[in-house]
Amino acid sequence: MVKEKRRVAFISVIAAIFLTGFKLLIGVMTGSLGILSEALHSGLDLVAAIITYFSVRISDKPADREHNYGHGKFENFSAFIETILLLITCAWIIYEAVQRLSSGNTHIEVNIWSYIVVVSSIIIDINRSKMLSKAAKKHNSQALEADALHFSTDIWSSTVVLFGLICANFGFYFADSVAALGVALIVLFVSYKLGRRAMDVLLDKAPPGIVEKVEQVLLTYPDVKFFHSLKVRTAGADTFIKFNIHLDPESSLLNVHRLCDNIEKELNMLIPRSEIYIHAEPQDISHITAEENNDLINVY
Hints:
The chain is of the alpha/beta class. The chain has helices at residues 2-30, 33-59, 73-103, 112-139, 142-169, 174-202, 210-218, 253-270, 290-295; strands spanning 226-235, 238-247, 274-282, 297-298.
């Protein structure tokens, strides 16, 4: 499993090196801001791909004495770094595009290589985006998911640049700078999504849908009289879940242990790579408020 994640991340790095060099060469030859902006975008994608590669290697290290919950958040931190890199890309593209449009210096040389580099980029990005997305879902990896999202938006940005080149070929040279602004808008949208997801995990926000899944499982166990203090957080591909359950005070220790094991196994099957912490307590009706007694659930 770890080898597959590393292999996919490494292939992404190789593809990024090729695309960055190819786009930069053709962008300089033609003077196309659209292609140059794509080259810068791909250059930062290369940095992001390298960060992803190393984050995947580090995040899969087991927990140790200094990192009791493992190294999973390194993936989330790398996704946050990618967001910053994307914002830097946007700032340069917008500045250069506005400068060219305001000065009227929009003339570029369009040739067959302009089209080859953009079309090649679209084909490569489609393939590696699918590859990364498949691996991200299989291994529940936010770093690979961020990479996949990166390259799926590259497809759209390259398409925008291709449109600008076609317009420039008919004498509408300003379309190249407009296309570059289109790329910047796409990158801004991606930056927002990546940044928000990364910050949510780094700030231990409960992942959507997990709390509801745990509640549904607990409600299927009649021996669980009441549960509360349900808390969920993630770190990389791992999900940590803890909660308290109230049981019959006459339950034997062996039965309580078996019940907790069954709950843990069911949640592990439902939520991959999850660690469950269950605190069992004797049910005491006198300590339950009227509202809690009606709902039988108190989650915070």
